[in-house]
Amino acid sequence: MPRPPRLSPDDVARALTELPLWSGDADGLRRSVELPGFRDAVAAIVAIADVAEAMDHHPDVDLRWRTLHLSLVSHSEGGVSELDLELARRIDALLP
Fold first, then answer.
1. For 46-70, what is each residue's pLDDT tens digit?
2. So which residues are the signal peptide here (predicted)?
3. Domain boundaries along the sequence of the chain
4. Where are the alpha helices (DSSP H) in the chain?
């Protein structure tokens, strides 16, 4: 199945207006979220992993104690695609 193409900088900027917890540009999206504790952060990673596996699209995740730093990019496309936007939406539905 073909992957969605890289989005233009304008398309990403428009999409970010609907994803206020995320920042970035056509090269990648970023969000950090602080959870109540370390185990909560690990549980969030597991929930994100389930969504990512279902989509066959995986974020870069960095866990620092109770803070998750998330990065989304479609490496095969060299930037942000619709898959990244959809994964961001699904992550927002999981996290506070």
1. 999 999 999 999 999 999 999 999 9
2. none
3. 9-94
4. 9-16, 38-55, 82-94
